[in-house]
Amino acid sequence: MNARRNETDIQGFHATPELSARLQQVLVDLIELALQGKQAHWNVVGTNFRDLHLQLDEVVDFAREGGDTVAERMRALDAVPDGRSDTVTAQTSLPQFPAYEHSATDVVDLIVTRIYAVVDTMRQVHDAVDAEDPTTADILHQLIDGLEKLAWLLKSENRKV
């Protein structure tokens, strides 16, 4: 029995339109989280300002890197990511971030809520992504783990015992 295959029989894995749409939703939410995190970073005031200012940069960096990972995974699967501002605004599931300055306590609550919104998007699409492409589901696992850790670190700022 010959195990060699013909070159014409070998094809890469391609994302279906459904998988592409699910990853696109994750992508726009990660981009929006990065934008809102930066908005919060610039406009946080009050007690523990400096530490929170720096923590928000960690959230922004994680969201940007995560968005890049998702977009590059989409390209690897011949899907076309769309990170244009108009697309992000039209498709994101995150609540709009309020304008102006906000206290450190309020910013913690606002950003933690948005982190959990992104995690919720990932959890909603996870099973369908896993059924079609377990490798991409592994990326979602890593992103969920990282975001939930960031949310825990942030929300601990406001926790009273």
TrEMBL record:
Ferritin/DPS domain boundaries: 21-156
Pfam families documented for this protein: Ferritin (PF00210)
Top-level taxon: Bacteria
PROSITE patterns on file: DPS_1
PANTHER family (UniProt xref): DNA PROTECTION DURING STARVATION PROTEIN 1, GENERAL STRESS PROTEIN 20U
Family: Belongs to the Dps family.
Name of the protein in its database record: DNA starvation/stationary phase protection protein
Species name: Mycolicibacterium mageritense
Source organism phylogeny: Bacteria, Bacillati, Actinomycetota, Actinomycetes, Mycobacteriales
